[in-house]
Amino acid sequence: MSYFIQFSLLPLLAGLLIGLPSRAQQRPVQQQPVTILVPAQAHVRIQFGAEKLKQALVQSGYPVQVKTGRSTAAPGQVVLGLAVNAGMGKEGFSLQRAAHKPLVVSGSDPSGVLYGCVDLADRVLATGKLPETISVIDRPEMVLRGTCIGIQKPTYLPGRDVYEYPYTPETFPWLYDKAQWVRYLDMMVENRYNSLYLWNGHPFASLVRLTEYPYAVEVDEATFKKNEEMFRFLTTEADKRGVWVIQMFYNILVSKPFSDHHHIKTQDRNRPIVPLIADYTRKSIAAFVEKYPNVGLLIALGEAMEGVGQDDVDWFTKTIIPGVKDGLKALGNTTEPPLVLRAHDTDAPRVMKAALPLYKNLYTEAKFNGEALTTYTPRGKWAELHRTLSNIGTVQIENVHILANLEPFRYGSADFIQKSVQAMHSVYGANGLHLYPQASYWDWPYTADKAPTRLFQLDRDWIWYKTWARYAWQSKRDRPAEVTYWGNQLARQYGLSPEKGKAVLEAYEQTGELSPKLLRRYGITDGNRQTLTLGMLMTQLINPFRYGLFTLLYESEAPEGEMIIDYAEKDWHKQAHSGETPVQVAEEVVAHGRKAIEAIEKAGRATRNQDEFARLKNDVYAQNAMANFYAQKARAALAVLRYKYSNEVRDLEKAVPLLESSVQHYAELARLTKDTYLYANSMQTKQRKIPMRGVDATYIHWQEMLPVYQKELARFKYTIDSLKATPSAVAKQRIALRPADVTIQSPAVEAYPIEKGQSVFSDTTAPILGVAPELAGLKGLRLAKATQQLQRTSLTFTATEPVKLLIGFFTEKNATYLPVPELETDASANDYGQAEIKISNAILVGGLPLANVHAYSFKAGQHTLHLGKGACLLLGFIAGDQDVPTYDAGLAGNKKNIDWLFE
User: Fold this and answer.
1) Average pLDDT, rounded, for the chain
2) Rg (CA), the chain
3) Alpha carbon distance 106, 314 (integer Å)
4) Which CA distances in Å does 707 have to 435, 537, 693?
5) pLDDT higher than 80, residue 599
6) Mean pLDDT of the region 484-509
7) 337, 295 in Cβ contact below 8 A?
8) What pLDDT is attached to residue 308?
């Protein structure tokens, strides 16, 4: 039996019934008959709206019939139809009824009539009757209001890479469950969402067959037919509800059978555009558009192809748009399906400038707070990008993406969400919403909760979907009225009094401040390589640059303020602090946690949905423990950082009780989640780095992390004891790395010793001025700097044993330098284990910025490494069994490194 059948006892309007007054749940009073009149040849959305209204009326005791015809002015009629009304706008509707007259539901378009029916059904279910008089005109504020489902998994499929998930019943059984899709789409129309985004790396090989490339299909014939049926069913049902389906795909990515046939990789970020792949992609898009002309496309130019360059422009204007036009031509159709350009890892304004003369039905999309939810006061260059996109003249869509700092705990802060939507308008100038699931994106449709049977996101996170939808429709709602509204919703959900419902809302809103404040003040990145709720290592707090600090988090996705390292330096120099500070946030999150517990306790005991209320209450306590863990650890970090300046062991000793307290709070967090959660993060691959590298679903639970923090504390105490016993003790002595011999097939390259005075490029005399001791004696590879800047660097070599290639990346962000491997923008940035900086500030070359060292790991055999355009330093190969130390070599004149206190 389908696992969705167990919910069949819920009425079709389950979303509307959340929190209905008791009257609507009692036996309905017999009412006067009602006739719903629909226009002849009414649009499918109007017919669907009539049916939704009929269900609400029947549930409230009305005998109802739906007929086609014209109004006879009888009071028992509800008349549906289109109307021209300048006050409505797109998707707007009007509800009008004078005493003893028919009730007229009119819309500016079929979607408007549908939403009018939904609104009227809400009113009927809330009061148990049709209004005797009414005069309402309403319309949405945002043009696009959409949700997202990832057709992806927490881990890679065997033999495949990131984003590569063919549509099959074995991998995605839920994808073929029509009852589930109906239920999800009903949720969408009840919340007035009008767009559904399906995310997948390369969906075409599961949905279309190409005459020129028949071998590219990656599902069997039976599955292919199921996919066709599923997609037609989904798009048909979505259209009834006014929902536009948008299929997303990455570039440049090909199917595995196609890659195997042509002996190429499925994806290679640094691969140039080649005619074969361009032709395959163009024909795939054409076939998709011909088959599904009403489905939109969301294009991610970044991640799987080199971003921010002419290739992006060429790929969009010479492959994607021509593919769409080819499909339209085959159909004999001139109506352009909508194309959404994702701004991630590409120069979207530049691409749009080139594309608009060729194609008009374009939209742009960019992440609201990166892959997290951190602030409703975005600023800086990220805000400038959004404003630029909004001013192009097309609709800019705000993507609330991944939520890596929120998962897995429940989130329902109406206040934070309302302010975020307001900022989308006022700060970004945007007019669309693209909403990810609140947690467990990679594990759809399940949540991370450990329960007798798996919970579904649609059930657990109803308030997430309802809140964003409410403010996407209208963000300028009166706050006191909203407190009453949400208090009533929660009261009815859990069978509480209105005042106790407000207490539940208060708990949601207090916990709703925790993860945003913690990440934006203490975090490494806004991306999903960090799982905030699992905590952070002390070295990540005191030396964030070592871990590839993503500075946009602090510069744009947080209020003005100070990082922990900035605060410590200012404090030592007795300088004034500014903005939001780490100490302030430590105090605030502790207060938020305490108030959340007080509020959830004030709510008392639920009389409905008791198991879910218990899980919500446990979440409140867990997040309080997390807040105290971070607050105490941040305070300990400040004490430790003071030691950098004072050299006084007593500053370290002040950190000990704080760190001990932090570990105690983490132990409580681990206890609260041991039997309530399966995992903290739904992405369980090598892309995860903070706090620990998550390979093969390791370090996904607090129980796994607790020993790490206990060991960190023990090491710190041991180091302090050693310093006290031997005051002159310093960090461990650095040992030079052993070079490894490899045979280089191409290009022709000259080797040189890594030592002071040696020039690092064949076409310049720029000498090495300083180098980390570990690198001394390695054999660098001398390439032409000008060539690296003009074309991608590729290196083909053979190794008889596992090796690591050390590459120096210049610290200045500039088009002339090779971009640093960055998981925020490049999903392949850790394919060789290269994402983490190993030795920072490791080599200084005359006239150039400092360089950080990253290590690329290879097995024995022949390899070809493709790097992007830009100058870098190939510092030589070392034996693969050697660990490259992770530390700051200090060539930038940095204060002494103190990471060794914890390692």
Assistant:
1) 92
2) 29
3) 46
4) 36, 12, 15
5) yes
6) 98
7) yes
8) 66
Q: How far apart are CA 302 and CA 528, in angstroms?
A: 16
Residue 549: partners with Cβ closer than 8 Å, 6 or more residues away: 524, 525
Give the containing element (helix H, strand E) for 808.
strand 803-810
- The mean pLDDT value for 62-85 works out to 88
Beta-carbon contacts of 175 under 8 Å, excluding residues fewer than 6 positions away, are: 151, 167, 169, 230
- Please state the pTM of the whole predicted model: 0.89
Residues 786-814: pLDDT tens digits? 999 988 899 999 999 999 999 999 988 88
Type of residue found at 874: L
Spatial distance between the Cα atoms of 479 and 419, rounded to a whole number of angstroms: 10
The full length of the chain comes to: 903
- Mapping DSSP to helix (H, G, I), strand (E, B) and coil, where does residue 847 land? coil
Give the separation between CA 132 and CA 267, rounded to whole angstroms.
62
505 and 603 Cβ atoms separated by less than 8 Å: no
Q: Are 644 and 896 in contact (CB under 8 A)?
A: yes
Stretch 128-133: mean pLDDT, rounded?
A: 95
Closest CA to 117 of 59, 174, 185, 38: 38
Which amino acid is located at 37 in the chain? L
Q: How far apart are CA 556 and CA 380, in angstroms?
A: 5
Single-letter amino acid code for the residue at 26: Q
Q: Which are the contacts of 770, defined by CB distance < 8 A and separation ≥ 6?
A: 756, 843, 844, 891
Q: Which of 254, 272, 434 is nearest to 341 (CA)?
A: 434
Contact 838, 884 (CB under 8 A): yes
Structure token pair of residue 101: 């007259």
Helix (H, G, I), strand (E, B) or coil at 817: strand
Output the CA–CA distances (angstroms, integers) from residue 655 to 564, 565, 642, in the order listed. 14, 15, 10
**Which range has the top average pLDDT, 268-282, 479-493, 727-741?**
479-493
* Per-residue pLDDT at 12: 33
Q: How confident is the model at residue 732 (pLDDT cuts 50, 70, 90)?
A: low
Longest dimension (CA), the chain: 99
pLDDT of residue 427: 98
Token pair 């909508």: residue: 338
pLDDT recorded at residue 310 = 87
Distance CA 871, CA 783 (A): 9
- Structural contact between residues 93 and 105, judged by C-beta atoms closer than 8 angstroms: yes
Closest CA to 297 of 368, 365, 388: 365
Burial 573-603 (b: 16+ CB within 10 A, else e): eeeeeeebbbbbbbebbbebbebbbebbeeb
Is 322 in contact with 360 (CB distance < 8 Å)?
no
Tokens of 250: 């990455």
Is pLDDT at 116 greater than 80 in this prediction?
Answer: yes
Q: Which residues pair with 200 in a beta bridge?
A: none
DSSP H or E run through 554: helix 552-555
Question: What's the mean pLDDT in 657-677?
Answer: 98
How many angstroms separate the CA atoms of 225 and 414, rounded?
43
Is the torsion defined by CA of 444, 449, 454, 458 positive or negative? Answer: negative
Q: Round to whole Å and give the CA distance between 749 and 795.
A: 10
